[in-house]
Amino acid sequence: MTASAPPQAPTRPHDEQQYLDLIRTVLDTGAPRPDRTGTGTLSFFAPPNLRFSLADDTLPLLTTKRTFLRGIVEELLWFVQGCTDSTQLSAKGIKIWDGNGSKEFLEKRGLGHRRAGDLGPVYGFQWRHFGASYEDCDAEYTGKGVDQLQECIRKIKHDPTDRRIILSAWNPAGASFPLAHVLTRVLTSTAQIYHRWHSRPAT
């Protein structure tokens, strides 16, 4: 008598498959729309949420296109520092913000009084100095505004059941362009931290 193989547990699709399925949905059903860049977009409102686990030291990094990991890490650290000067990233070979900080771009946005590289109150400023009056990227902002990031960390550690562990970057006044990933919310349980991230455009 031959022993039968044990039943296989159903395999969970790779996390990236959610992204690929969403791209297919947008390509198949998205509505063409003009946009400010003249490129055009396919619009699909309120797509399904994508869920990723960061357990076991995993990182939900796309593999179906080239991803600049060093740039991602450096940019995040730049946000955390509260920096709004794109030349600091550019000096490290990370040019992703150069276009938005160029003198030509700033002048077109009515912000020609700013020096090249001064992006205005973008992510880092909103995270670390929300509500403070923005002067320029060279000013000292220590102790000014609300340090949302520090407050989120404090609540996660000392008041984990708080339902207001929120990090908001949406404050369109003075930024050189509308920000994309605008809201993060954290919910904690006994053993896990859940994080929800909302992006204005899903590019």
Automatic annotation (TrEMBL):
<dbReference type="InterPro" id="IPR045097">
    <property type="entry name" value="Thymidate_synth/dCMP_Mease"/>
</dbReference>
<keyword id="KW-0808">Transferase</keyword>
<dbReference type="GO" id="GO:0005739">
    <property type="term" value="C:mitochondrion"/>
</dbReference>
<dbReference type="InterPro" id="IPR023451">
    <property type="entry name" value="Thymidate_synth/dCMP_Mease_dom"/>
</dbReference>
<dbReference type="InterPro" id="IPR036926">
    <property type="entry name" value="Thymidate_synth/dCMP_Mease_sf"/>
</dbReference>
<feature type="domain" description="Thymidylate synthase/dCMP hydroxymethylase">
    <location>
        <begin position="17"/>
        <end position="175"/>
    </location>
</feature>
<protein>
    <recommendedName>
        <fullName>thymidylate synthase</fullName>
        <ecNumber>2.1.1.45</ecNumber>
    </recommendedName>
</protein>
<dbReference type="GO" id="GO:0005829">
    <property type="term" value="C:cytosol"/>
</dbReference>
<dbReference type="GO" id="GO:0032259">
    <property type="term" value="P:methylation"/>
</dbReference>
<dbReference type="InterPro" id="IPR000398">
    <property type="entry name" value="Thymidylate_synthase"/>
</dbReference>
<dbReference type="Pfam" id="PF00303">
    <property type="entry name" value="Thymidylat_synt"/>
</dbReference>
<keyword id="KW-0489">Methyltransferase</keyword>
<dbReference type="GO" id="GO:0006231">
    <property type="term" value="P:dTMP biosynthetic process"/>
</dbReference>
<dbReference type="GO" id="GO:0004799">
    <property type="term" value="F:thymidylate synthase activity"/>
</dbReference>
